[in-house]
């Protein structure tokens, strides 16, 4: 019977240890997901004639060009791009997608862009700003398993002390 009392007493003493606060987590509503940081840097602009989206990917500037009034891709255009002292002529691809080599847009920064678009009789000058964000540094992760070691050691020490006390009390009752 005393053995059962010792187990119950040990459980009563140890149970509050598992309910301690930990890690500073908020267990309320889940935080809204952050906008994906893996999206390519982009610039967009529109005029009365054209709508343009430019993305910087792998040392190239991809330019998506369509008509503003119908959203139809413009495939038969000549597109030139300027940013500061840099100038490039984009090569036409399928479905109104143009490419131009632009390795300078790999570096973080804000780049003003000027696009000159000539499509048939329509000519337009489109201004946009490309913002390349710096690559976020990943925070070092905390090893949560290490935080449990002090508690485990304390529990083992408590169990050892309890066992020694129990043995001595049992020995005293016999003698």
What does this structure look like?
The protein is built from 2 helices and 8 strands; from the N terminus they run H-E-E-E-E-E-E-E-E-H. A hairpin with a 2-residue loop joins strand 4 and strand 5 (86-92). An 8-stranded antiparallel β-sheet has the order 1-2-3-6-5-4-7-8, with no helix packed on it. The protein has helices at 2-14, 144-174, and strands spanning 42-46, 50-57, 60-67, 78-83, 86-92, 97-101, 109-119, 122-132. The protein has 2 domains: 42-132, Immunoglobulin-like (Sandwich); 144-175. The chain has 175 residues and is of the alpha+beta class. The longest helix has 31 residues, at 144-174. The model has no long low-confidence stretch (mean pLDDT 82). The radius of gyration is 34 Å and the shape is rod-shaped.
Q: How many alpha or pi helices?
A: 2
Give the strand order of the largest sheet, numbering strands 1, 2, ... along the chain: 1-2-3-6-5-4-7-8
Major β-sheet profile:
8 strands, antiparallel
Q: Report the sheet-strand fraction.
A: 25-35%
Keywords: Membrane, Signal, Transmembrane, Transmembrane helix
Transmembrane segments: 146-166
Signal peptide: 1-21
Protein name: Nickel transport protein
């Amino acid at each position: 019977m005393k053995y059962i009392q010792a187990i119950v007493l040990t459980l009563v003493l140890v149970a509050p240890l598992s309910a301690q606060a930990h890690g500073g987590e908020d267990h309320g509503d889940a935080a809204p997901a952050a906008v994906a940081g893996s999206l390519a840097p982009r610039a967009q602009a529109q005029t009365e004639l054209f709508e343009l989206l430019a993305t910087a990917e792998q040392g190239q500037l991809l330019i998506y060009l369509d008509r503003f009034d119908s959203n139809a891709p413009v495939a038969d255009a000549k597109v030139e791009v300027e940013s500061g002292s840099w100038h490039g002529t984009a090569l036409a691809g399928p479905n109104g997608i143009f490419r131009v080599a632009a390795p300078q847009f790999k570096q973080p920064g804000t780049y003003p862009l000027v696009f000159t678009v000539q499509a048939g009789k329509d000519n337009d000058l489109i201004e946009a700003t490309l913002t390349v964000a710096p690559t976020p540094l990943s925070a070092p992760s905390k090893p949560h398993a290490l935080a449990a070691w002090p508690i485990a050691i304390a529990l083992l020490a408590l169990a050892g002390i309890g066992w020694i006390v129990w043995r001595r009390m049992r020995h005293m009752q016999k003698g």
